[in-house]
Specification:
Blueprint lengths: L22 E2 L2 E2 L1 H4 L2 E4 L4 E4 L16
Antiparallel strand pairs: 1-2, 3-4
Length: 63
């Protein structure tokens, strides 16, 4: 649970670097990166799996 003294940090990404082995056609290929996510409540890491939808399209069907 966040407390007031924990604060919130907002920033701007100004540079991204990636090894050529995870780049396809000039962009980072998420299937090659094998990203993980940290769960601070369960103190665990989870692998991010397959694509499950299309941003800004699939949700529009629900409106």
């Amino acid at each position: 649970m966040l407390k007031e003294e924990d604060g919130i940090l907002v920033g701007e990404i100004v540079n991204v670097s990636a090894d050529e082995s995870v780049v396809t056609d000039g962009v980072v290929d998420v299937t090659k990166v094998k990203p993980i996510s940290f769960d601070p409540f369960g103190n665990a890491y989870y692998g991010i799996g397959k694509k499950v939808g299309n941003a800004f399209k699939d949700g529009a069907k629900l409106k």
